[in-house]
Amino acid sequence: MNIWQGKLVRLRPIQHSDWKYFHKDSLDSEISRLNDAIYGPRSEEGTKRWTESEAEKGWDGHNFRMAVENFDGELVGSISTDKCDPRNGTFSYGVSIFRDHWKNGYASDSIKIVLRYFFNELRYQKATAYVYSFNEGSIQMHNRIGFTQEGCLRNMIYTQGKYYDLLVFGLTDEEFEQLSR
C-alpha cells in the first residue's frame, strides 16, 4: 500500500507541466473566493513561475502542497498543509478541487490521506480546518468526514459586498481512528 494513495486519488508532488491546470483554475473567481480571496489576474508566465516554485520546494514533511491526481492520472486539484506545530501536534490544511471534478469525493479522500499521514506517521494529534460560512459544500464535507464545528469567528471574511463568518472545524487523532474502523 502507498500511504499517499486513497480510495479515489493519490497525492504527488506538483510538476512543472501542471501549470496549465492551475492557470485555468485561477481564472474561476468562484473557486478563488472559496479557496481564499479574489486577487488580480496572473499571466501564464506568472503561473508557470508559481508552479515551478512549488515543484522545486524541498520536502520538510510538515508544510507542503501536493497535487491531487485521480486514478486515471488526471490532475484534479491540490492540497496543502499549514500552521504545522510539531510541539503541540496541531496542523491545518486547505484543499482545492478543480470545478470539473467537484462532487466526486476527491477532496474528502485527499483530506483523509493527509490526516492518516499526520496522525499515524508524524504523531500529530489535532487537525483544524477553517471554512468560510458561504462554502456549503465544504461545511457538508467536513461534517461527513467527522469533524466537529468548534467555533465561529463572526464577520471575518468580506466578499461580494458582505461580511461572512469563518467556521472552525476540528478532528483529533482519536476521533479519526474511531472513524477509520
Automatic annotation (TrEMBL):
An example Gene Ontology molecular-function term: acyltransferase activity, transferring groups other than amino-acyl groups
N-acetyltransferase domain mapped to chain residues? 9-170
Q: Which SUPFAM superfamilies match?
A: Acyl-CoA N-acyltransferases (Nat)
- Does the record's keyword annotation contain Transferase? yes
Keywords linked to the UniProt accession: Transferase
Q: Tell me which InterPro entries the record gives.
A: Acyl_CoA_acyltransferase, GNAT_dom
Q: One Pfam family name from the record?
A: Acetyltransf_3
Source organism's superkingdom? Bacteria
Is the keyword Signal assigned to this protein?
no
Protein name per Swiss-Prot or TrEMBL? GNAT family N-acetyltransferase
* Native species: Fictibacillus aquaticus
